[in-house]
Design goal:
mainly alpha; 7 helices; flat
Length: 171
């Protein structure tokens, strides 16, 4: 009803990317460790939220809310722990960028190729690989995405080996 609509619009700014981005900036102003942790974890969090939101439309899978929450907590938690482990190692900046790049790449690949018929094949269904049913335009976009991801990873590695001012020597 009207109360729900008012509540939705009243609290809506609190769960937008702009609000979380503002929190990231505020945390990053006081701590480099917090900046990395919050920036990467929140980015992955929103990537997984988008994946869950599109699961039924793209993959035809109706996952209950508790499974979506489990996926969100597991993936985000795994990345948060990985960020903690990478923070005090050599080439911190490049490792963080590579972590973020490949996690987002993996989520995009899942979104592109995860199909209901792969996970739950119908009895008597055609046994050919369901990936053969992916539209050619999806393969084209994915190929470009693979190539740009590899090129980006190579650039990150190349620039991390140089002592650039942006990396502070800890590239």
């Amino acid at each position: 009803g009207m109360a729900g609509l008012i509540e939705y619009n009243l609290f809506r700014p609190l769960y937008t990317f702009v609000f979380f981005g503002a929190l990231c900036i505020a945390a990053g102003m006081y701590s480099l460790t917090a900046a990395w942790q919050v920036a990467i974890t929140i980015t992955v969090f929103h990537t997984v939220v988008d994946f869950n939101r599109n699961l039924s439309r793209v993959a035809g899978i109706e996952a209950p809310l508790w499974i979506q929450a489990l996926i969100l907590v597991f993936v985000t938690g795994l990345v948060a722990v990985t960020v903690l482990l990478l923070q005090n190692r050599a080439r911190t900046v490049s490792r963080m960028y590579l972590l973020l790049l490949w996690v987002c790449f993996f989520m995009a690949a899942l979104r592109t190729f995860l199909r209901r018929e792969c996970l739950f094949p119908q009895e008597g269904a055609d046994k050919t690989c369901p990936l053969m049913n992916v539209h050619p335009s999806d393969w084209t976009v994915f190929a470009v995405f693979v190539l740009t991801s590899i090129a980006t990873a190579l650039c990150i590695r190349h620039f991390s080996k140089r002592n650039l001012p942006l990396t502070g020597g800890n590239g």
